[in-house]
Design goal:
Length: 132
């Protein structure tokens, strides 16, 4: 158990839980490919809309699956992913695209507000309140 074990995309050890490295690399690559389509001159408006929609869906799905407010390693990994996406945007997107509300208001892997909400829900559950 010292080394831990992998289960459903998580690496579980005595000292905590983290997202498997392979899963982190896979989501980075998925997002990178979709970001490239956003500012590609040969992409149609429909392709750009689809790329942005898929970026948001990918981030939201990954975050909702892996986020655990009580697992500091996972929170750190999500922060790293968010920083990575911002670096990709700076590398692949022009300033007008980065400033576009579709990009600035996109889904995020991690925001400080998420932690507060998750903690609130956890407290409610501890008090016996049913949370849907």
């Amino acid at each position: 158990m010292e080394q831990g074990f992998e289960f459903l995309g998580f690496h579980i050890r005595k000292d905590g839980v983290e997202i498997k490295r392979k899963r982190m690399d896979e989501i980075r690559e998925v997002i990178r490919e979709r970001i490239r389509k956003l500012d590609n001159p040969s992409s149609t408006l429909e392709q750009k809309i689809k790329a942005m929609t898929l970026i948001n869906a990918s981030i939201r799905g990954f975050r909702n699956y892996f986020f655990r407010s009580d697992e500091t390693k996972i929170i750190e990994q999500l922060k790293i992913l968010e920083e990575s996406i911002n670096r990709m945007a700076n590398d692949y997107l022009s300033p007008p695209v980065i400033a576009d509300p579709a990009w600035t208001q996109r889904e995020k892997f991690y925001e400080k507000e998420m932690e507060a909400i998750e903690n609130e829900v956890g407290e409610m559950k501890l008090q016996g309140v049913t949370v849907r």
